[in-house]
Amino acid sequence: PNPDQVCFPTFPETNREAVATAVQRVAGMLQRSDQLDKVEQYRRREARKKASVEARLKAAIQSQLDGVRTGLSQLHNALRDVKDIQNSLADVSKDWRQSINTIENLKDVKDAVVQHSQLASAVENLKNIFSVPEIVADTQVLIEQAELLEAHRKLMDLECSRDDLMYEQYRMDSKNTHDMNLIRNYFGAVQGLSDDLAKQLWMVLQRAMGTVRRDPTMLVSVVRIIEREEKIDRRMLDRKKQMGFIPPSRPKSWKEKMFEVLEGTVTTRIEGSQSVTREADKMWMVRLLEITRKYVLDDLIVVKNLMVQCFPPHYNTFDRFLKLYHNAVSMRVQELAAEDLEANEIVSLLTWVLNTYKSVEMMGHPDLVTEYDIHLMDPLLPQKVVDELLSKYVQTFTSNITGWLRKALETDKKDWFKETEPEADQDGYYQTTLPAIVFQMFEQNLQVAAQIDETFKEEVLKLCLKQMNSFLIRYREEAIAYKEDHLRDRQLPQCYVQYMIAIINNCHTFKESINSLKKKYLKCTEPTQNDAAIERTLNDVAKDGCQFLLDEVFLDLEHHLSELLTRKWLTGTHAVDTICVTVEDYFNDFAKIKKPFNTEMTSEAHRRVVVEYIKAVMQKRITFKNADERREGADRMIKEAEQFKFLFRKLTAVSGEETDRLCDAIAAIAEVFKLTDPTLLYLEVSTLVSKYPDIREEHIVALLAVRGDASREMKQMIIETLNQNKPSYAGNTQPIFKDITIPTVTMTSMSSSMAATANKLLK
């Protein structure tokens, strides 16, 4: 039909909806009065839209009609084809029924054809049958001369003649074993030729790596022979499925045997790489692994560049050899892992297995990685075996490092008793070689562990730090024993002070070395419980060392300290001058102690000197008889306090508030002695107590006793008043009087005296 004449059915409901929609559109266009001027313009636009929609609708309907017309035409053609096929099938069925009788009449012809085939085979092999001995001899010579292709051709002729005769005999009478054995015996030498040829083939394959470099055509000939045999095997197997007959020694499966020989060759090459034993060379493991690496890399490069060209592509030669070498190496390293390995041998093996094997030095070599994906290779060692080796290494390493540290400490102890001073570093600080030896040992083992993997490296470092803590405890014990040996005879060792300084400085070196190792080998440097223990032990060792040195100083000062606050001191002695000179002399040596230990030691020495001075006061070695003695004694105390202050300012190179406060305690006590008006004594003592709130009742009693002019009533009144108004000790400053004790006898007698005074007052 003509598209222009297409008529559309009318639907009342649809018309109503269309009219309603049109009314809405018109109402929307004419909402304002000024839009009436555009009515004609709106009409033309809507007319254009309507024409466009009608044109598209007509085109769509025309397209559908064309499709329907085409479909009907194809259906008519298909119907005609089906009828033609039905007629052809009916004709074929009719002809087949008519030919059944004809096929049955051709049975005699079929038998004649079979007989003709057998006779033809016999005639064809007749020449070979009579010349079998000659061919066998020629073939044997060719095999011995390594003319393998020609020998195999003659062997195939002999086998073909034998197999054809046996096949025809089988077809004629499969149960006639006599004739079958007769043929087999006549061709008996053929099997021997086949075996001899096979031996030559396997020999060539066993030397494949050398043959492919020297004479690749020989290897190609071997592969061609094996491929021929594979085709014959497949043909014989197919005939067996059809006829049930297969010649003797078939299938030969030489291709399968070839891969077995190659696998054995690879295994032998890997196993034969061990040239030395542990007894002959301590580095036998390293040498073995290096030889293995070189063999594997060289052989695989030869396979890629030369041997692949000698085998058919479908052999996937490189992948096959890669798997053979990988399996052979895996077996070998598992055998090595099962041996009783030492710690360094375990590390060498694991480093090689986990890192070297897949590196650019071996399987990741640029000449090889283009042939396979190295990440898809199976691990050489099962993870269980790796874990067992790591565990064994940790046990051995723990035992070894304990012995190494003990030996290092014993060596260092011997140095402590030398008559020469220890070495000094570039800054002049005394030190021994112990920290360097210990951390060189740690560094070497961590570098070795890092070759295995990051996790194991961190585990070894943590183990080192754990052993370090135990070692430092022994180090502290040995330092204490060193001090005790010295106290038995202070003349020995001659360089006791210098080596004790070195022990203190070693603690600082140990701290720095530990932090350096942690930064270098640990990803996370957060402090652990073990770190806190090491820090605490090192501080204890250094603190003990400083205390031992101060004890040494005060042993020399003991005689001079005993002269303080005595009659001899009051009349004039050089005790404090000697004390200052001695301290300064010692601290010239102590200047070779590293900070912060040097600073802490100076502060402790300052505090201890002041405490010893105040102890001398509290021991009431002297009781002033009059105001002149009190003034003279107080002036001397103030002068000596200034001497101490000058000395320790010089030693610390700074004038600190704490430095002045310690020495001011002596001056404050002197002011109590210097006071001439006893009625003001309470105020002076109160001032002293307010400055040094850790002072106790027995201290005040001792001071008043040394002053010598305070009555019992005054002492009692001062003590009671101070007890009522005693300031609280905040603990913000270092205590001075806390460690100063008053002799028991003095306190007992004083208490008795005060009790008697109290009874009188009550009466």
Shape call = elongated
Please give the number of β-strands. 0
Roughly how many Å is the radius of gyration? 56 Å
N-C termini distance: 153 Å
* Helix and strand composition category: mainly alpha
Mean pLDDT: 85
Taken as a percent bin, the fraction of beta residues is under 5%
Q: Major β-sheet, in short?
A: none
State the helicity in percent bands: over 70%
Give the low-pLDDT segments.
1-8, 745-763
Series of H and E elements: HHHHHHHHHHHHHHHHHHHHHHHHHHH
Number of helices: 27
Q: Assembly state here?
A: single chain
Describe this structure in words.
The chain starts with 11 loop residues before the first helix and ends with a helix. The chain has 27 helices and no strands. The protein has helices at residues 12-29, 39-105, 107-130, 132-144, 148-172, 177-186, 188-206, 208-214, 216-243, 254-271, 284-305, 317-337, 343-356, 383-416, 434-450, 454-488, 496-521, 529-562, 567-572, 575-590, 597-618, 627-652, 657-674, 681-691, 697-707, 712-724, 744-762. With 763 residues, it is mainly alpha-helical. Helices cover 75% and strands 0% of the residues. The model is unreliable at 1-8 and 745-763 (pLDDT under 50). It comes from Oncorhynchus mykiss (Rainbow trout).
